[in-house]
Each structure stands twice: as C-alpha cells, then as structure tokens.
Amino acid sequence: MKRIDYIRFAVIVLSLLTVIQAKSQQPDESGMIRKVYNEALTSYEAYHNLEWLCKNTKGRICGRPEAAEAVEFTRQTMNKMGLDSVWLQPIMVKSWDRGEKEIARIVSAKFGTVSVPSCALGWSTGTGDPGLSAKVVEIRSMDELKKKTRREIEGCIVFFNQPMKLTNLGTFTSYGESVWQRTNGPVEAGKLGAVGCVIRSMGIEIDDFPHTGITRYDDTVKPIPAIAISTRAAEMLSDYLAADPGLNFFFRTTCLAGPDVPSFNVIGEIRGSDFPNEIITIGGHLDAWDIAEGAHDDGGGCIQSMEVLRLYLATGIRPRHTVRAVMFMDEEVAQRGGQQYAKEASDKGEKHIAALESDRGVFQPRALAVTGNPSQMKKLAEWQPLFDPYDVKLISGGGGADVGPLKSFYPEILFMGIIPEDQRYFKLHHAASDTFEQVDRREMQLGAAGMASLVYLYDKYGL
Amino acid sequence: MKRIDYIRFAVIVLSLLTVIQAKSQQPDESGMIRKVYNEALTSYEAYHNLEWLCKNTKGRICGRPEAAEAVEFTRQTMNKMGLDSVWLQPIMVKSWDRGEKEIARIVSAKFGTVSVPSCALGWSTGTGDPGLSAKVVEIRSMDELKKKTRREIEGCIVFFNQPMKLTNLGTFTSYGESVWQRTNGPVEAGKLGAVGCVIRSMGIEIDDFPHTGITRYDDTVKPIPAIAISTRAAEMLSDYLAADPGLNFFFRTTCLAGPDVPSFNVIGEIRGSDFPNEIITIGGHLDAWDIAEGAHDDGGGCIQSMEVLRLYLATGIRPRHTVRAVMFMDEEVAQRGGQQYAKEASDKGEKHIAALESDRGVFQPRALAVTGNPSQMKKLAEWQPLFDPYDVKLISGGGGADVGPLKSFYPEILFMGIIPEDQRYFKLHHAASDTFEQVDRREMQLGAAGMASLVYLYDKYGL
To answer: Which chain B residue's Cα is nearest to A205?
Structure first.
C-alpha cells in the first residue's frame, strides 16, 4: 500500500464511520421537532390558504373551471414560498357536469308526495328532462342483492339502504363495508334490469345532506341513472316502503359526462443538499366533489403538504433528499394525477424513496404511519419518544390512492401516512357539509407538524 | 369445635374466597364493555337531549329563568329514564343580570372610532348609563403589572392583553397561565386606581367572539367595571396603542348583581344491589354562561352523566354500589352546587366512595383518569387492555370544581375524570360559539361509554 492509498483508506473509513454514526447514534432531535411544532402552532398562513381554497374554488372536481382556479392558486402560493422549483404537470382528466339541481320525490298513495334531499352520484348518467319514475326494491346487504332475480328487479328502481355500521370504532371501516352500494350498486342493479338506483348516502349520521362520490359503470351493461339521498330520507323511504310497498320514486337528473380535458398536478420542491436525485413525495389531492368546499377531503391534505415545505423553510431545515409537495388532480374520479406522476417519474429516471399521503381529513392527528419491514418498524419505534409530547403514535400503515401508483415503478418505496381522528369525517365526506368552518387550525397544524417531523427524521437518518 | 362451628367456619372461608376471587381473578369484561360502547354508539337519545338543552335553555347561568328551565328539563328527562329516584336538591345561588348589550369603542384621533365585540365579565359591576371613557394602559404579563405604579394607572383603563400561549400542546395549560387576567385583573387594576378593565378574551384563536367568565372582586378595593373584547379586537387595540398611545377607550355596561335566589342541583340514581349506602357520583354542571348555549361547557358533561345511567339500564348492568348522576348548579360563579352537595351528603351520613366529573368539553375522549395511590394505579393499569380497542388511555388525574368539595368530608374518596381532545375547546369556552352544532354525537357518546365502563369496573372490582 502506497502512502496515498493509506490516506484514501483512512478517508473511506472515516466516511463510513460518519455514516454509521449518523445511522446509529442519533443526536437528540426533540429540540428541532419542538421548533417545527412551535412554528406550526403559531402560524396562520396555511389556515388562511385553506380558507381561500375552500371559499374561492368550491366544487373543484376535475375538469371544472374551479379545479383550474385551484391549480393556479396553489401554484402561486408555492411560488411565493420561495421553493427551489414549482411547476405544473399536465394530465388529461375526465369531465362531467351535474347539470340542473336534482329533483327526487317519494310518491305514495298513503303518504302523499314528499321531496327528499338528493344528488347524482359522480359520473352517473342522467335521467334526462322527463325524469324517471318506478316502483322501488329495497336492498339492505350484498347478500340480499345476490338473492334477487331479474324478475324481481326489472323495471324497478333499486334502493340500496345498508347503513354505515355505527359500532365500528374506526369510521373508515364502516365506509369500506358500505361503499360498494355507491361504487357497484348501479351496475349490479343494471345487470338485473333495474331502471335507476337510489343510494343511502355514505354518511355516518342521520341528517339532511346527500353525499356524492364516484360510481363505476361496466361495459357489459347499459348505465342506469343513480342518485344518493340523505340518510334521513333513506330512513323515511324505508319506513314508507314497509307500509306502502307499491309506492313510486321519481327522480330527475341532467348530469352528463363530457370529453377528456387538460388539467394539472401542481408540484413544488426543496432540492436535497446531499441527494437531490432521491425524492420524498408529500401529497394530497386538489380536486374535491362539485357540491363541497372540500375542506377535509382533501383541501386540508394539500395545504398540510405545502405547509411541510413552509415549516422546513421557516425552521431552517435543509433536507438531504429532495422533498416535494404534490397537489394531485383527479383522485375522486380516476386517479389520473397519481398515475401520471408515477409514470413520468419513471420515464424521467427519477429515484423515489418515500411518499406520504394525507387524505383522511385534517382532524387531530392520532398516529403517523409507515409501511416498513420489521427492521424499519423497529427503527421507527425508536423515534416514538420524540412524538410522545404530541400524543402521536408511530404505527404501521400509510400510502394511498395518489402515491400508490409509485409502487409499481419503485417497489422499494417507503409509504407513509397520517391518521387523524375520524369520528367526524363521514358526516362531511363528499357532502356540502365539508366546509372550511369544520377545520380547526390547531388540529390541521399539528398534523402538518407531525408529517414534517417524520419526514425530517427519515430524511436525516433513514429507516 | 362443634359441628355447627365447622359449618360456620366453612361458610366464612367460602365467602372470603368468593370476595378474594372477585377482587383478584377478574373475568374477561371485554364483552360487557363492548356492549356498553355499542349501546352508546347506536343511541341518539343523549344527543337529542343535548340539542334540547342547548336550544331551549341557552344562557342558563345560575339565578336566571333559563337555569330553572334546565333544572326542570333534566329532572323530567331522568324521571322518564326509570331510575330508582330523581330529586332536586335546593341551593341558594347568586344572581346577576348582564343588562343591555354592551358597547365598546376605540376612540383614536389617528384611527377614528372603531366599535369592537365585547361582553361584560361575569359579576362585573356596570359602568351605568353614561359609560366610561379613559386612556388605556396595556399590560402583557403579571410581571409588567407588578412593576406599574399608582401614578401610571390611576384614572386609566387597564387593558390586559396576555394571549393564550399557542405552543402549549394542552390548551388547558394555556388557559391556566392566562386566566388570572380575567379573574384577578380587575381587582389588581382597581388597587392601582384604574377606573375600568378591558380583558383580551381567553380564546385560543383570533376571531370575533368575546369570551366571558367570572371575575372576582375583593373587599379591600372598590369594584371597577370590566369587559372582555374579542382576540381580534385585542390585537387591533394593541396595534392602535402602539401608534397612538393617547387614544381613549369607551365602554358602557349596565350589568348588575342581584340578591341570592333559590335554585337546585338535579340528582338521579340507580341504587346499589350490594352496597346501596355507598355512593359513586358522576356529574357535570348544568349552569352555562348567559351568552352561550353551553354545549361543551358543560351541557355535554351533564348529558354524558345521565347517559351513563341510561347505558346501565339499557345494557342490564345493576351496579353493586349506588350510582348517581348529578347536574350541579353554579359551577361558573361560586360552586355552591358542589359545596351544598358535599355538605348535605355529610350531614345525612352518606358514604361517598368515588366521584367522576366531566367538565372539559365532550370531544373525542383521549383518556380516563383516576387520582389513586400507587397500588390503585397499578390495579387500574391492569384494566388498560379493556380500553385499548377504544383508543382510551387510563391515566392519573380526575376530580374537578363540583366534586372537589366532597374531599373535605370524605378524605378517602376516589376522584375520576375524563380527558377529551382539547384543541377546539378554547375557541368556544364561555362564548356564543359554544353551540350544539360543535358537538359530535359519536365523540360525546364515546366519552359517556368510557365513563360508564370505568365506573362499571370500579363498582364491580374496586380499586
């Protein structure tokens, strides 16, 4: 070994030791995390941005002018933040127009004619001007549907009335158990010859808000018009049917699907100091249902994602890897934003190492989640004491509809997530009740601070 | 030993063994607790009762007709529940009338005249018809006040403007640090010759709601009129003072304290099957500030307390000890309800073994608390797995202003409590924003189920 080789060897050993030390001997980060939380709790910027988004781009479902306004607003907001770059990523999205305000009525010889709150399901076909009137068959479970014959259903309106289960502690579980009625009900009913579908809103409480959301048709069967009625209306219709099985239901929708139109994902990033080509994505979806302000679903998640970058700038954190905030377009309909983002990343040869999605509302955070292998989860657990002061648990989970497509291009990608309280979420989800006023500034900011802290630790120490 | 003695001895041993087994070998109670939670999550009764209380007895501060209506409503509600007994416990309470809507204005040569949202502090003396106008001295901390001389304050209005600290995770901590301004500010300012007091509302967010609450005068100094202004108005007044220190503040209040008047605690109980003379009290306070519906403070706590008894009846739990729901009157002013309850208990020779107070809002419960000795806390910890499915921690804490007086008569009494999320609480506390609409049914019911489950275990197995 020449002298120069000794020096080289020494340099390599020292470098390795530094890396090992960085990986194993983590200095106490409680001060930095406190700084992040303090900045979040004392700032009003994100909250004011959410107010702007909710009040000025209400109804920003993909393809609508409101969605274009939301794109422009978030682009400008990130531009003003002083990020390293901000850009729009073009995508093509489906378009659909709700048309005139829906009309829905129970028409009963016994109870008279009663109007009920309703809205067309997303991407439903319309009844057209004359509307649709038919007898009603009530279905309260998937099993009940399976037992039905064509003779029982043909020419009727199928009324899906399986309530969200109240006794699940986690309301996402109840949603998962019931949402088949909205996504698949119309096509299944269509297969049996139904002429229309009425769905009990996917709402956890009894109230007067109809909840919309996507329904998926199928090439094998002619699409039939489908509406959601409020949970209270569903209870009423069910009661009336018990006493007057021959009643008619009338509804009129003029919604119409249009051609694909251009839209954008909105992206901003802070470039990594050490690994600029390794990317951590933090995102929410910018589109929201056309009847809602989309405060919790998912304006808040977008605002939190931008807030993570603002917190970095405000607290002087320079990430080692590139950290991106992505406002995904079109989560609610066909997830084209997430698909395009992943495909383009791969086409460009980007290296994506982790992705955190916030799309469960912006209530008080209960947990931060990572989908790691056992050794990663073990290391994650070592960070728990750093989150104890904020009453946040580090658990297994994460990912989501928008970051999900990255997995097929980056099988090793680490998914992260944030799990807020969810008792209130399905009162608001996809309904006009999802307003800015339902968001608490501190709760949303605690979420953003938690996301920033988790990504900060991962960026610095890895998992 | 005679044969009969052997038999007696055997009976005693068997009895002891039964007791020991009951105390140490707790059967799995997860099914019963699940039953309690299921009943709570599927019932609307308590929520509808809260709505009635909020909408029909708004402003039920002690001594007001609305408080009498709340007494009657809760008495009737408990009567209908089929409890073993329901009764009213007479107390005398203070009375006070807010008078005409308060007027408050900044009068600045530089900025003109600006009206600001205001309300008299509870039990404040009024300015009388002409109102009060004076120069303003701003105080931002207790230290700053201590340094002030009579010459600096005399003839002025003291403006207490120490914001609630945003960076505390627990908002009750911030309240504790700032509330001296409201409770003691006016008397301290009075001692230095101030003619009036303006308090920054004890609100955690910047908004337009003035928050009232009790202020305490002192026999040594003449009471001066005191109002709270909204946090946004406080920020504005502070800014204006910086630019125009000579500005005047005008306010007019016609509030007036009256004589003591009769009122009641409302009490309902299920008598214990084994120990009817040993009492567990569960309570909230029925009075609420006159400008508020008092949904979270503390209509919800009262409703939860009644709901615990309803849950017992609905799930077939017959407690071994007597379990009482108490709607305490006059927590907000002089806590006479709590004092009378404790005194009468002692006078009647009742045995009080435990008391649980719910008075921190009815948001999603985070913890149930017990003020136990180390051996009791150890036993409590054994119950933790029963609460894990509901994401509720068993911690040290509990007690409160209404059950507190029991301690002087029953030094061994076990205090319990419920700790909900508190990020939203001090946006609403003592303000017109504390409305029924701010309460989530599931969150309130999860609290009631948690309270019922803790008391169920304590009643059955002791601590």
So the answer is: B441
Answer whether A364 touches B (CB < 8 Å). Answer: yes
Does A389 touch chain B if contact means CB atoms closer than 8 Å? Answer: yes
Q: Which segments in chain B show pLDDT lower than 70? A: 1-26
Instruction: Say if B452 falls within a structural domain.
Output: yes
Residue where a domain stops, chosen among A194, A225, A254: A254
- A391: chain B residues, CB-CB within 8 Å: 169, 366
- Residues 6 or more apart in contact with residue A334 via CB below 8 angstroms: A93, A94
Which residue among A44, A166, A427 places its CB closest to the CB of B42? A166
Check whether residue B274 and residue B235 sit in a common domain: no
Interface residue B30 vs chain A (CB under 8 A):
no
CB atoms within 10 A of CB B314: 18
B45 touches chain A (CB under 8 A): no
- What's the ipTM? 0.93
**Chain A residue with minimum CA distance to B48:** A206
The answer on pLDDT for A18 being more than 70 is no
Picking from A41, A204, A389, the nearest residue to B166 by CB comes out as: A41
pLDDT of the residue at A27: 82
* Cα A123 from Cα A101, distance rounded (Å): 15
pLDDT digit string, tens, across residues B249-295: 999 999 999 999 999 999 999 999 999 999 999 999 999 999 999 99
C-alpha distances out from residue A416 to A356, A367, A372, Å: 4, 11, 9
pLDDT tens-digit readout, A395-429: 999 999 999 999 999 999 999 999 999 999 999 99
Q: Is the domain of A191 the same as that of A312?
A: no
Residue to test with chain B: of A423, A424, A444, A446, most B Cβ within 10 A: A423
The predicted model gives A305-314 an average pLDDT of 98
Domain span holding position B226:
101-254
Which secondary-structure segment (H or E) carries B93?
strand B85-97
Question: What three-state secondary structure class fits A296?
Answer: helix
Residues A245 and A285 in one domain: no
Mean per-residue pLDDT of chain A: 95
Q: Kindly report, residue by residue over A186-219, the tens digit of the pLDDT.
A: 999 999 999 999 999 999 999 999 999 999 999 9
Looking at the fold, whether B451 and B381 belong to one and the same domain comes out as yes
Nearest CA in chain B to A444: B423
Whole-number Å distance between alpha carbons of B462 and B455: 9
> What does the alpha-carbon distance between residue A283 and residue A403 come to, in Å, rounded to a whole number?
8
Chain B residue with the nearest C-alpha to that of A393: B391
